[in-house]
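>> received
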Amino acid sequence: MRIVIAEDDALLREGLALLLRAESLDVVATADTPEGVLAAIDEHQPDIAILDVRMPPTHTDEGIRAAVEARRRRPGLAVLVLSAYVEQTFATELLTGGVAGLGYLLKERVGRVGEFLDALHRVVAGGTAIDPEVVAQLFSRYPQDARLKRLSPRERSVLGLMAEGLGNSAIARQLVVTEGAVHKHIRSIFAKLDLSPTDHVDRRVAAVLRYLEDGRRHH
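>> returned
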């Protein structure tokens, strides 16, 4: 796995590189500006780019814009965005291009090395890793949505885990139920949310998150 890291905080940047190299992963370049990471991506053709949301010069959304540009230049490039807290505009800015090979984690998650590495490998494999706190905030913003209110508590739990990027077997382990039970819950969720079911986890996640973002925009 070839990795490029973009983080303007030198301590965090080098710490992350050391962590990944300790796991025998190949950090081919690090950068501290959007321009630097895009140049590194063009030069090294990595499998994944890890980008901080806030980078120079304005420390607002440079990382998001660099991620969008990186995926435009290299369709299929896996991108993992790190943020100190939930960014309101993340989903609409980046998820509109599709969620395959895309992750968004809070920086505090990096300290949980096992979870962070699982998310990294899932994103490189074309999957999705959305921080649980992001999912929780998406749900909390529009509790009055009629379709969401149709879901049972267990179905909401399943939907939240789906949105984090977990597949059926991982959801089953998390909730200590059978995969068959998870499959039934997911079919019920799609029926109640008026979404067409699909066998592809990423498409399920895309449909769920886009539906939630539509709800946020209209409330």
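>> Residues 79 and 203 are 17 Å apart (CA to CA).
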